[in-house]
Amino acid sequence: MIPTRAAGRGCLLRALRAYALFVLASVAVTVSLGYLAAAHALRRAERAWAEQAEPMDSFVARYPAQPDSPAGVALDALTRPLGVRMCGPSEPDPPGGDKTHVEFLQSLGKFLSECGHAGSDACPALPAPVETFLEREAPRLDAIETHILQGGPLHWVQDLSKGVAAPFPSLLGHRQLSSVLLTRAMLHARRGRPELAERSLEAGWVLNASFAERPDFLSRLITVSVSGMNNAVLRTIKTPSDRWLPRMQQRTFAADVRIPYQLEAWNWTRFTVGLWGIFDVSYMESGEKPPATILGTPGRVLTAPYVRLSFAGVSEALLKASQTLRSEKRCDFDVDRYSKEFEDSFPRWNVLGRIATPSVLRGFTSMRYADLDRELTEQVIAARKARLATGRWPSAPTASTVCEGVAWKPQAGSDGSVTIGASVKPFATDDPQWTWSIRLHP
Q1: Cβ distance 24 to 30 under 8 Å?
Q2: 219-265: per-residue pLDDT in tens?
Q3: d(CA 335, CA 428)
Q4: Distances in whole angstroms, Cα of residue 343 to Cα of each of 82, 155, 282
């Protein structure tokens, strides 16, 4: 019996229906397996952090949400007439909209940076406009220092629950005010006012400490930058206070690199809760909640396993990187090579991993530089104290505790000076602006 055309169409429709059901079932099974695999990967990453570092929950609990402290708000009111914001947006706020004032504040930091890399304790003279500014603003700066030292604890707005959209204090304002205080300390020292120099240095240290304990990379890198300026001024002080040597030995940056790395892991794994899809990446970077749309929901359901697997991989990679970098005792290891290895550790399919971790290794390099710069400053302070006590510069080398295989070697000059320098090149690819030696004059 020859089948009719209608019967043939019925067979075709049943076949297509069966095929569609097969495809849908295959997709459903694949997506379901993806959710299971992602859940397993996330549990594995969280367990690794808990066993090898710190559980995510207790880590986040150490940094509770908080507003700017009353002392911080009061400091902001004191610094606004200087064109410096300590609270609120970081955009420059020069008096009367004068952009040249912003450039002037930036020039203070540049002067201190150049002084720190000069290779000598004889820094150039302060520019005349700087001295004029510091003298004109002396009453205001006195009030600012008094407030920092006596006005109560300084802490700044923080809310880790917002992830990459978490609020920041004015990092630019912190750098600007620190530049003013440290430049003032240098002026006091040069004019024979050591007590006032110590007071300005102490105010700068207390201010920087209020940012140093923040867990995020940006705050810590600004702290690194300000610490470099602080070191530059300390190396010019002929009779440093006894407080500096022990307190500087307690401040390390690279050793604490796990904290900002764990925060990075926390920030990204937040997007494994709820439905975040591959098309929501722009919202992840801004911290905004993606809008609910008819077409968007199916896409999120289908791609959420990929997002979760990707960020589980990011979390594990950041933990491994923090452990590798902290265990690396030599400073001349090839950072560029390790950066390539870090990037290649992500499977090809994990494109999000490469997007989420573009520059974390560069942050570690800056911290290692800061630690060695701090150690050079310790050597300068110790040498000056030895000369004050014995009348002679030290002559024995001192092994570095920052870079394995490096020692600090004093070399006396015929004019009564001494040059303290690294015995070997500390870093394989050294930044040319850094000078790992300094000449001290009597």
Answers
A1: no
A2: 999 999 999 999 999 999 988 888 998 888 888 888 888 999 999 89
A3: 8
A4: 44, 35, 21
